[in-house]
Fold this sequence. Notes:
2 copies of one chain form a homodimer.
Chain A: E1 7-12, H1 41-49, E2 58-63, H2 64-73, E3 82-85, H3 90-105, E4 110-115, E5 119-120, H4 123-139, E6 144-148, E7 159-162, E8 168-170, E9 173-182, H5 187-196, E10 199-209, H6 210-220, H7 222-237, H8 240-249, H9 255-260, E11 267-271, E12 275-276, E13 296-304, E14 310-321, E15 326-330, E16 334-339, H10 346-355
Parallel strand pairs in A: 1-2, 1-4, 2-3, 6-11, 13-14, 14-15
Antiparallel strand pairs in A: 4-10, 5-12, 6-10, 7-9, 7-10, 8-9, 9-11, 15-16
Amino acid sequence: MKTVPGLTVVIMAGGSGTRFWPLSRKRSPKQFLPIASSRTMIEETFRRVRPLVPASRILTVANAAQSRTIRRLLPSLPAGNALVEPKGRNTAASLILATAHVYLRNPEAIVAVLASDHIITDAPLFLRKLAAAAEAAASTESLITFGVQPTYPSTGYGYIQFAREGGLTVSGEPFFPVLAFREKPTLATAAGFLQSGGYVWNSGMFLWRASVFARALERDSPEFFVFWRRMLEALKKRSASSLAKIFDEIPTLSIDYALMEKARGTLVCAGDFGWSDVGAWSALADLWPRDEQENARRGDVCAVDSRGNVVHNPGKLTALIGVDGIVVVQTKDALLICRKDRDQDVKKVLELLAKNGKTEYL
Amino acid sequence: MKTVPGLTVVIMAGGSGTRFWPLSRKRSPKQFLPIASSRTMIEETFRRVRPLVPASRILTVANAAQSRTIRRLLPSLPAGNALVEPKGRNTAASLILATAHVYLRNPEAIVAVLASDHIITDAPLFLRKLAAAAEAAASTESLITFGVQPTYPSTGYGYIQFAREGGLTVSGEPFFPVLAFREKPTLATAAGFLQSGGYVWNSGMFLWRASVFARALERDSPEFFVFWRRMLEALKKRSASSLAKIFDEIPTLSIDYALMEKARGTLVCAGDFGWSDVGAWSALADLWPRDEQENARRGDVCAVDSRGNVVHNPGKLTALIGVDGIVVVQTKDALLICRKDRDQDVKKVLELLAKNGKTEYL
């Protein structure tokens, strides 16, 4: 695969999720853990795009502490490429910062924005889509968003509604006009989306030319365009205090709300490249090795009449008797046992622990 | 409470159960573990009877390795009181050995036989029953067995059917003639037993005058009486090799089968002294401290919508989400997660481990 000239990849690594507690903690969020494979998710993300871009054109965005972790996990990343946010202010702030950084070097450079903590099992297909999108972005005034062919009526993902007609095809890959962004739907609505065929999952990955991003902000998101201009100034002057002030003042909003949902002419590039945001423990049931009773496991499991469990207990024997569909996660100081369909409630445990002053487990 | 002259307590400590795996292992069976309280079960048993007999009149019966553990756990037990069986041959052999040992010192001494791994929550009542039974045994030709008022139709215990009439009362305690020993019944049969009122649980605890035991063997169990006589000879000669030979040849049978079920004139002393044989993990649901969601626990438990679980995970946090009625047991090298009503199937795990050569966990 040839590298794509003018393409810069921005890996958003500032997340601080709690859904993989007790493995993930405040200081070691999901992207820095080897959850889906034996490598951390950010390493997997970095390695996945390397065939398309050299390390010198990969940027990460995260706070100072996270950036130190990133530089340890990605030793081949040039030091200056780990962009440091003064504080986490959601993705609009991160991506204005990263795109402004690119813009100052080359306003016509293409920026691909990836999450640091998603999995993509069909990397070749994904890279083909990404290369075609970069090519498309070079010649259009459109922002491009990546959609994923839904395989089931998920209520955990947002959806993108698109039009079959009026798009373009680049290097054999189709780009469809976005009609609307839809929030996480109910099951019935999701089923309707799937039946209609005109919807894809919103992967949270984007691609744009830096100058196009700037013009889209100016036209469709004037509130944030102000910060774009201030960000350019602060970066030009290398003023940490200005940057800190901007991050104090910029609204805490996702790029979806701040720009994508307002922008006109956005195109979606859809594909079935084995994407998952690995939103919680139960997602690992499909990723880890399974025994003949469909128990996904890390560690030695001895199962008697026990099916469909997810067990993370490396280095110890886990014996299961008569239990189905539970998640078991062992760490040095904590053990989680959770019904698989309740894995979103890990946050309730964290709330209880915080309430009871057991902050050592957070 | 006054000590009872002429009473010797024999604690049977040779068991090697597997039902408390992974806490209990081949080399640390239940009686040597602090399962029900913070003391090991054999320490609890020893301390419980001390108000009635001095340590010099408490004997234990177990194999050599177990006897070393006993002497470590019960430092006040005189060294010679830990009787060593050449090998485990079930309770008939153990009790013929122990009773013969007592008989050689005083044929009219009273022998009370206790299990080392049962719990008794109302110790004063139990000791009152024991003292009365010792008094009764001194003046009758009967073997005495201890029964427990059933509180639910257990299918896990054997039952003793008794007659209301024809017994005797000693120090206010009634002793009823035993009509029959009944094996572990079905639930329907157990319910019938409870309704009739003429049945008590067989606790596996007994009491007899040594000479009465000898005569009962001679009359009702001649097969074992042969071994009784050989045992007396071997003990008199202090011949370890004779004893080893006897233990090679003596049938492996419980005292229930070998004698109690055949003996005539046996009396039952019944009481509701909070007895349990603590047969498996779920039994601890009633013994350990519980939270407001009826989770019995050892260790710090944070429960979200989780009820009626039994958790042994000292020194670690256990978080439960949406799980009911399961047993969780953490040890250094293994973690057990078992539905409460399947706790008898721990042996299936051990069979699987043995089959797969994972003997380090046995």
